[in-house]
Amino acid sequence: MRYNESYKNDYFDLTISNDSRDFERDYSDCDLINIDVTKSLCSIKNRYEGSDVTIDNITLTGYDNYFLNHSDKQDPDAIIQKTSNDVEVFSNPTINYVVEKGDTFCLHPVSGYTGLYTYNIELNKLDRGQYYNHLKGGFYQGFFKINNQPVEWFPHRAKLGWTANKVIHLPLHNDPNGKLLNNNYPGNEGFIFYLGTRAENKFSDLTDIEISKLDEHYSIKPKEGKAIYSYKEPITLNGIDRYIGYYTFHNGSMYSGRSYTVDSKPLKYHEEYKDLDYNAIGVRITEDGRIGYRAIYPTDKCYTGSTQDVTGITTNSFITEPDDQCKNHSVSKIVTKHMTIEECYTKKPIINLNENKFLHISTVFERDFPYNTDCELKYGDYKKGTLSIYINGFLVLRNHDFIEIITHALDEQDELQKTVPYNISFGGGTQNLIEATYLDNTKKIDTVLERFFAGTFMGGVKDLQMLCVPLYTMEIKEIVKSIKPKYGLRTINGGRKVFINKLF
Amino acid sequence: MIFSIRQNSTLPTLKMKVLKDGRHDFRHFEELLENSVATFAMKDQETGIYKVANKEAKVVLEKPCEETSEKNYIVTYQLTKEETNKPGIFLGEFKITLFDLYDPTKVYGELIAPIHEQLYIHILDSFVKTDIV
């Protein structure tokens, strides 16, 4: 029978294909991070084959997330760093962290000094013969790259995109009165995965005390000189009036003019916002069982609508976009002059958070245009792609207008940002500078990140897998199929009976 | 349409692709197909006895190694040795359960394909006998 125009009124049909090619591809080279948190916090794959890399002055940034232990107060080299609520931390500036040859990406349980929050994790809980770690305020975090060092366990920008597979466990632990990030930052609970910078830059606009301590204890000199024209840069006079003209560094701070003189005026460079652009995405399950993401990207230069002031924005500031009947997700945004914070969730709750079960959740980003070293693809639509979220192999959210996350270093000297950018969190977002230690405790930094990402998932976590390729639906289904008996995952299968109830 | 396979063999795999007849909305169907589940059945044309009774079929990507945003899906079923052990003419059908996009609790519809033509599966007699040990 030959098909002709008359058949176009009928439904789609199938016909035999004589294509003899394989319908499978080998993506094992891109399977870079595999961690079962109940067995080891380090990946079993992706061995680092370089030489040892020493991270000097780790105490400047590593203490911020309790990456290192306290130094002894009696240590003759110890210096006092303080947290924002005046907790004294004795830091030994000579402590280094060595990434040894053969190391792989590792997660670290987050903790803190301030005493304002608890980060508890109950280890090795058992369900269906499988262990998982139940998060009760805590979560895991790790850096996958160090700027300008031969340490990179995951590319900061993969050619086609990336995939993050997680196995989590429900139900949720409930602790409304606990000292938890969730209780202080409502609207941030439920982050199961985060990719981007762990914190904003606490060394911007160095104070005299910081300059002195950095020089004395760490032999780090502040930026000096360099007449730079500020056109298009977000520089203001004392944080208020926009400044356009030459600026220069003096003692690490910015001043107006080609060189520093007594008449130079101090400038404020809003670099913290630039640091966040394309540099934060968190996958989140809401309290009512919807799933989606929250991400930050720069506001379009051509945007002419109303904006909100960065200082006042919270999770209550999101403005939901008009409902699109053709899409099964809703999008909300906070648009400021500097950046846009976007969140996108399924329209309906799809996860029953009260059942005892494991879930496999995949997040896949696929770029519209492949990227390689010859083509930066920096502008406009070239940065767009599709973000998809799957539960147990079933596609539940797909946003074709997703703006790509391109993890990048902070606009700061390398010595002052080691282990801060290029982070992955499992079971939480990021605590930003909540637990940060400061060389100068009088310094106040107006930060944004914790307002939108300081929150944790209160269920269990088991596996984290990161691939530097966007997996196709069929490939995710194959992965889920392979672990389905192990975790008792409920999936939709073909066959005599197709079960679709009580899946997630 | 006819799919031919030799007795006691497992290849070639039966592959069915979406017929693009110039319609503009095939992209929507491909998206539905991506999130669907498929079942295959095969019965003897003469006796009506089922040789494959509603077993799960696969929905796969047509060209997984091509870096393109255009994705076409294929429904496949690989017959087993037991299913091809008897020569004859069989009728085959795929049943594809399509879900409301992104909602696994709502069935968009069930499609039995092919629609316009019968799928005849010819299992041809073979005299080669080998065993894998």
Percent helix range of chain B:
under 10%
Distance between the termini of chain B: 36 Å
One letter per element, helices H and strands E, the order of chain B comes to EEHEEEEEE
Radius of gyration of chain A: 24 Å
Low-confidence stretches of chain A: none
Report the count of strand segments of chain A: 31
Report on the biggest sheet of chain A.
9 strands, antiparallel
Structural class of chain B: mainly beta
Largest Cβ-defined interface: A-B, 48 and 56 residues
Alpha-beta classification of chain A: mainly beta
Number of strands of chain B: 8
- Could you tell me the mean pLDDT of chain B? 87
Give the uncertain stretches of chain B in residue-range form: none
Beta-strand content bin of chain A: 25-35%
Task: Report the span from N to C terminus of chain A.
Answer: 44 Å
Radius of gyration of chain B: 16 Å
- What is the number of helical segments of chain A per DSSP (H or I, 4+ residues)? 5
Main sheet: strand order of chain A? 7-10-29-14-21-22-25-24-23
Outline the biggest β-sheet of chain B.
8 strands, mixed
Mean pLDDT of chain A: 88
Specify the overall morphology of chain A: globular
